[in-house]
Specification:
716 residues; mainly beta; lipopolysaccharide transport protein A fold; 26-stranded antiparallel β-barrel; 14-stranded antiparallel β-sheet; elongated
Length: 716
């Protein structure tokens, strides 16, 4: 450590330094420091090879391998810099500024005023690193060059004059009036536009103006312009309040629509020009630790708007409002549901409106009484404008006792009592007869008793650990009035591994599986370092010989059910494979064959999914039709930055599997292919997608899209 002689009370208290060698010229009042010089003022530091300090003027001149850190943590690298004795102002030559919050500015020359603001001449900015992992220089994948750049240290903003965007060293786009933040915070301004070429609307360009209204709310207005149709305006408003958050998104345009069922693939009939749009809103308010209100709303002007403009491919738009109270032992929900169908052949009048839907559950325990009790009260009203209406209310009490025997068996005893009251009208408007029930008031009582026994066996195997768990369940329910009750929520029934040991294999509440049945099977788990295998398989047997309420083909029609199972294999983080199946109990034909497989990691992977339902169910049951489908997706890197990706969905259903469709056994629905470039500061991709199905004015054809994301850059 070295310091000059003389009166140091006014200067040395502010600036301290160290160096390999220090020389003081008392006549000129100058300090000369050489070799590994470090100057410190508060949190600011300057490191240099040589420093000259003029004590008369307060000027500091640093030269050679300079590293200057200002009060905000920004780092300036240069070979020569002039500063005041408080490190406030100065001139800099051939500098590089590394901003603390990301991004780099390079310039031929620059000045820094007393507030820390910098003005740079012949400058360039990039969010990319300028060195690789080995410390070698590299060219940034993108940069913005400008005749002049101004950095506002207080507002953390960078403004440009005469800016041009360069990508991979090639100038591609002038950016007049460019400005952006240096600390990644959102601010008002224009965002980078999107480009796309589609079959339905032609070429399109979208530009978004973002308004940062306050720290807790913002608005984004997007104008999308097409060569094949009129422009569309999109608005998205987001708001964070003291109680919660919500957002609302709206789309509006005017365009022509091809009538549903039309075989035309050309331009839409001009006589059907109309205003079209879509509203999507959601949010949640938390009034207290227990009470909350959750809502979402989705409405489209017509059935093809979302597909034509590539907003969503959902075939049903659900809106709901749900008031909930949740604590450790109880749950209350008061909700309403509205659904808009966008399926081509579904009449909206047959789609139910559920209001209100009330559900209350409470868990209880009594001193001296083993086990756990749960009480439930449920009420539901369903209204249709052109279909059957129904109302339901029931109360349920359930007792569960779980115990471990001295031999290691896990035994669960269950007792359930339930009473129902139903009312329905316009039952003849439901096309499937067994779903209708009887009109007017209907009541029923339900009593169920069950015992479930698991007996795990643990041991070593194949260098790892295995657990074999046989399982037996007996469920007894006296005969229940099922056909007299409307079936609104128990239609899509199928024997699967997920409901094999359920008390009631029907989803929902409207249908109850009665009689006495035995369900048996086993779980097997094998685990060793890097490998995990889990298997479940089982079957059930009914003692009753009465006709079942389950349709043929569900796997539950006869006394003995089909065999169902699931196998999951995980090999480290590289391979995950899940297979679900249902085997016909007589012929061992595969009635359900489904697998999902993933091989690879986030950079290189193959994903495949296959589903074949071969249940031979009558076409009257619209929720249970057979189908066959293949889904595949893949991605692989070409270099460290470039990768290619693709995906496809193929409908393999033929007329034998589903006579209601015109599939020929191989129908490509949609595929996507693309190439992407990704590094530390740039995401760039080009995607080609082709749709093979016409739905009104959502015509089949090719779509091309360019996506561009530059780290820490917006346009204003």
């Amino acid at each position: 450590m070295a310091s000059p002689a003389g009166d140091e009370s006014s200067v040395d208290d502010q600036v301290r330094f160290e160096a390999d060698k220090v020389r003081y010229d008392s006549n000129a009042e100058k300090v000369f420091a050489e070799g590994n010089v470090v100057l410190r003022h508060d949190v600011q530091t300057v490191r240099a090879d040589n420093v000259t300090w003029d004590r008369n003027t307060g000027q500091i001149l640093a030269t050679g391998n300079i590293r200057f850190v200002d009060e905000d943590g920004n780092i300036v690298y240069t070979d020569q810099v002039e500063l005041t004795d408080e490190f406030k102002a100065g001139a800099i030559e051939d500098l590089l500024v590394v901003l603390r919050t990301g991004g780099r500015l390079a310039a031929e020359r620059g000045t820094r005023d007393e507030s820390g603001n910098m003005t740079l001449e012949n400058a360039a900015y990039s969010g990319c690193a300028v060195e690789d992992d080995k410390g070698c220089p590299k060219r940034p994948s993108w940069e913005v060059t400008a005749a002049r750049v101004y950095f506002d240290a207080n507002q953390k903003r960078v403004k440009y004059k005469g800016a041009t965007l360069h990508m991979f060293g090639v100038p591609i786009l002038p950016l007049p009036g460019l400005g952006h933040t240096s600390d990644f915070r959102a601010e008002t301004g224009l965002l980078i536009p999107d480009f796309r070429l589609g079959a339905a609307n032609g070429a399109e360009i979208s530009e978004t103006w973002y308004w940062r209204i306050a720290d807790n709310r913002d608005l984004a207005l997007t104008g999308t312009f097409y060569t094949g149709s009129l422009p569309m305006l999109t608005a998205k408003y987001r708001h964070l309040t003291n109680l919660g958050a919500f957002q609302v998104t709206g789309y509006a345009t005017r365009s022509a629509r091809i009538p549903l069922g039309s075989t035309s693939t050309g331009a839409a009939n001009a006589s059907q020009q109309s205003w079209r749009g879509y509203l999507d809103a959601n949010g949640k308010l938390q009034f207290s630790p227990h009470w909350s209100l959750t809502g979402n709303a989705r409405f489209a002007s017509d059935r093809t708007f979302l597909r034509r403009y590539d907003i969503s491919r959902d075939d049903r738009l659900r809106s709901s409002l749900n008031l909930e109270r949740i604590d450790d032992d109880s749950y209350l929900s008061i909700a309403g549901w509205v659904t808009q169908t966008v399926r081509v052949n579904d009449p909206q009048g047959m789609v139910p409106l559920a209001l209100p839907a009330i559900d209350y559950r409470k868990r209880m325990a009594f001193d001296g009484v083993p086990g756990r009790f749960e009480l439930e009260a449920n009420s539901l009203a369903i209204v249709r404008t052109a279909g059957q209406d129904s109302q339901r209310a029931f109360a349920r009490a359930q007792w569960d006792l779980r115990t471990i025997t001295g031999m290691g068996q896990e035994v669960t005893l269950t007792g359930l009592l339930r009473g129902d009251a139903y009312h329905s009208s316009d039952n003849d408007l439901t096309t499937t007869a067994i779903y209708r029930g009887l009109p007017g008031w209907q009541t029923r009582g339900i009593a169920t008793a069950a015992i479930d026994v698991k007996w795990p066996f643990v041991g070593d195997a194949f260098g790892g650990t295995q657990v074999l768990t046989p399982r037996l369940q007996v469920v007894a329910t006296p005969g229940v009035r099922n056909f007299e009750i409307p079936n609104e929520d128990s239609r899509s029934v199928d024997l699967e591994d997920t409901n094999l040991f359920a008390l009631n294999r029907f989803p929902g509440h409207d249908r109850i599986e009665d009689g006495v049945r035995f369900t048996y099977g086993f779980d097997w788990t094998f685990q060793r370092p890097g490998l995990r295998v889990m298997t479940t398989i089982g079957q059930s047997y009914r003692l009753s010989s009465q006709a079942t309420i389950l349709p043929d083909g569900t796997g539950l029609t006869n006394r003995a059910s089909d065999y169902v199972g699931r196998t999951t294999v995980r090999f480290g983080d590289v391979i995950k494979f899940t297979h679900r199946f249902r085997l016909d109990k007589d012929s061992f034909a595969l009635r359900r064959n489904e697998f999902d497989a993933t091989i690879g990691n986030h950079r290189r992977y193959i994903e495949a999914g296959y589903l074949k339902l071969n249940r031979n169910i009558a076409t009257a049951f619209e929720d249970l039709q057979d189908r066959e489908e293949l889904r595949i997706a893949a991605r692989t890197p070409i270099t460290n930055a470039f990768s290619v990706f693709g995906s496809a969905i193929v409908n393999l259903t033929d007329r034998n599997e589903d006579p209601t469709r015109t599939s020929d056994g191989f129908q490509m629905l949609r595929h996507r292919l693309g190439v992407a470039y990704t590094d530390d500061c740039l995401d760039l991709s080009f995607t080609w997608r082709r749709d093979y199905v016409n739905i009104g004015d959502a015509v089949r054809g090719n779509s091309f899209q360019i996506s561009l994301s530059l780290k820490n850059l917006g346009v204003k």
